[in-house]
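To: structure subgroup
Subject: Chain for Friday's discussion

All,

I'm putting the inputs and outputs inline so they're searchable in the archive.
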Amino acid sequence: MIPDFQKIILPLLEILGDNKEHELGYITQKICERFKLTEEEKKELLPSGNQEIINNRVGWARTYLKKAKLIESPRRATFKITEQGLKILQSSPEKINVRFLKDNNPEFKEWQTSYKKEEVSSQAIEEVETEKTPEELLDYSFTKLKEELAVDILEKIKSCSSTFFERLVVNLLIAMGYGGSRKEAGETLGKSGDGGIDGIIKEDKLGLDTIYIQAKKWDSTVPITHIRDFAGSLLSKKAKKGIFISTSSYPKSAYEFVQSIEPKIILIDGNALAELMIEHNVGLSTKNSYEVKKIDNDYFDEA
């Protein structure tokens, strides 16, 4: 199990207890060995997919130790214990966590309270300190907001007309790079009604290939017979590609079926539809925007 960043603080200080300089990669490796992490756990990513969880937590444990003046960085990405850090180790603490650092280090307490807003309750602060790193909190909060937004999107779509849904599908496919112009896409989708096909759309702006579309609002699971009918329509037109979009879900047999036939059919269920709308910003507006920045070490190497 991957330890939280507070459980890493003392082991990290102990690794540097040999009073030698060590690179962050070496420290992370030793932390993984200390907690007997599996290869899968070492590769586990934050929800954003931008960084391994263990690297993120070791990084924040390092940051907290630096702010408490228990370790220092004599060279880039290299760390060494300080005299103050050695004294702490010699006292044989049972654990070193945020509370310990705050109670035993005025400079750390001043740093920590400097970025906390007054309106945040002490209980909320303590919860933040004991569970996840700041980046993890941001990532998990963002993921939670996306999940809630996806639910709201589907509810909104289901309350709209079928005509609006077809127009929404056009806008989404255009945003994804399909369909040529919006006018061309709008003229083809939702008008053919030909044997299980709602419309056709260009695969690219040049129209080098055609994709056949089935777009249906459903509350219950889409019957596999509808998928079979759609596939039959594709075969009759010698079509190579099709997309079946629904606001509900598909049975497992539907996915097995489309994998076994020659025309390539992509099944987009309600969850995937909502995620694509979020990804391509269809029907949405931006409420807030945040940028997470980091030091550009290459820039400072020139100093």
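Points worth raising on Friday:
Confidence is low (pLDDT under 50) at residues 115-129.
The radius of gyration is 27 Å.

D.
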